[in-house]
């Protein structure tokens, strides 16, 4: 029979063993795309569709990648929609293909709603890429979304190809504030250059265990404004 002292010692050893292996365990993340699907975004969505095969290949072929699954969320005004959470290339491509741009006449869109939904259905420690050409109509939800993103320890990168009323308003600055709060970035891009950000994502996949902000874009491709 094991004495109480020996039993206690074994428990301490067991929990120490678990703690060591927990520290060494690979944290699996989601690679999440949050896309404004209003009519003016057709070009950006087209470029994402064209590059998705290469992104999947990078994930599947990289032993260093920590990506567990892919998540796709779209948003408009006032709703956001979960398109897919999957590990399968064909399912993700099908979800992308099902996006039909619509609406957008009043410009500001429900970006915070889209990000909030994406955070809730993605794994902790995930990487979110938000594509929009509009300001955030629901910018007043910043604190709520910031709290959720920090709780999930996820990073948010914004790819912005337009704005509604300039870049100084609270509905636009919220993107910078959220990127800063999550160690993310803000990129201002021309609509035809979104493919360059997608190549940046592809190149980041193998080293995604480190901060994506350490990866540099080629000169002239986007700008870190956070």
Automatic annotation (TrEMBL):
InterPro entries registered for this protein in UniProt: HMCN1-like_VWA, VWA7, vWFA_dom_sf
Matching Gene3D superfamilies: von Willebrand factor, type A domain (3.40.50.410)
Cell compartments where the protein resides: Secreted
KW Zinc (keyword) present: no
One Pfam family here: VWA_4
Keyword hit for Signal: yes
Main subcellular localisation: secreted
Domain Hemicentin-1-like von Willebrand factor A: 30-191
Signal peptide: 1-22
Full protein name: Hemicentin-2-like
Organism for this UniProt entry: Spodoptera litura
């Amino acid at each position: 029979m094991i004495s109480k002292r020996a039993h206690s010692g074994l428990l301490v050893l067991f929990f120490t063993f678990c703690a060591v292996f927990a520290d060494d365990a690979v944290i699996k993340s989601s690679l999440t795309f949050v896309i404004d699907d209003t009519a003016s975004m057709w070009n950006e969505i087209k470029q994402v569709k064209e590059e998705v095969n290469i992104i999947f290949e990078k994930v599947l072929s990289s032993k260093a990648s920590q990506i567990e699954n892919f998540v796709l969320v779209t948003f408009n005004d006032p709703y956001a929609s979960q398109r897919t959470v999957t590990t399968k290339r064909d399912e993700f491509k099908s979800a992308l293909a099902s996006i039909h741009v619509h609406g957008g006449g009043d410009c500001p869109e429900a970006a915070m709603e889209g990000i909030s939904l994406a955070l809730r259905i993605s794994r902790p420690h995930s990487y979110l890429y938000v594509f929009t050409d509009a300001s955030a109509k629901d910018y007043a939800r910043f604190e709520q979304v910031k709290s959720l993103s920090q709780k999930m320890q996820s990073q948010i990168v914004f790819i912005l190809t337009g704005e509604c009323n300039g870049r100084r308003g609270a509905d636009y600055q919220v993107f910078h504030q959220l990127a800063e709060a999550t160690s993310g970035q803000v990129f201002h891009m021309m609509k035809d250059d979104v493919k360059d950000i997608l190549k940046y994502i592809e190149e980041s996949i193998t080293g995604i265990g480190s901060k994506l902000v350490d990866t540099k874009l080629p000169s002239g491709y986007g700008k870190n404004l956070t």
